[in-house]
Specification:
CATH topology: Rieske Iron-sulfur Protein
Number of helices: 0
Structural class: mainly beta
Number of strands: 13
Strand content: over 45%
CATH superfamily: Rieske [2Fe-2S] iron-sulphur domain
Helix content: under 10%
Distance between the termini: 8 Å
Length: 108
């Protein structure tokens, strides 16, 4: 496995997100209680930037249609919604992360 340095732990404070690019992949780093997760940056439903969304527990909520994605698995735990309609939502791509000496590495 090839891991690439992407940021320091101080760059992604608990409860915050950071957009990065790894080998032309747009990725979102998320810190939940000191644990770092990495997933695709854009929502698979309508392409909204998840960086503009919210972190709730261990999920990222899409800012456009409120789809929710589990940070560990990428599974859509809540479907995209528009008024009372719910739309099928694909899972997001997730990436392996390792933290060493306050440096964050993502699998390329």
């Amino acid at each position: 496995m090839n891991y690439v340095y992407v940021a320091s732990v101080a760059d992604v404070q608990p409860g915050k997100m950071k957009a990065i690019v790894v080998e032309s992949k747009e990725i979102l780093l998320v810190n939940v209680g000191g644990q770092i997760f990495a997933m695709q940056r854009f929502c698979p439903h309508a392409g909204a930037d998840l960086c503009a969304g919210k972190i709730v527990d261990s999920k990222v909520i899409c800012p456009k249609h409120n789809a929710a994605f589990d940070l560990a698995t990428g599974e859509a735990v809540d479907k995209a919604k528009l008024l009372f309609l719910k739309f099928p939502t694909k899972r997001t791509e997730t990436y392996r992360v390792k933290v060493e000496n306050n440096s964050i590495f993502v699998e390329a």
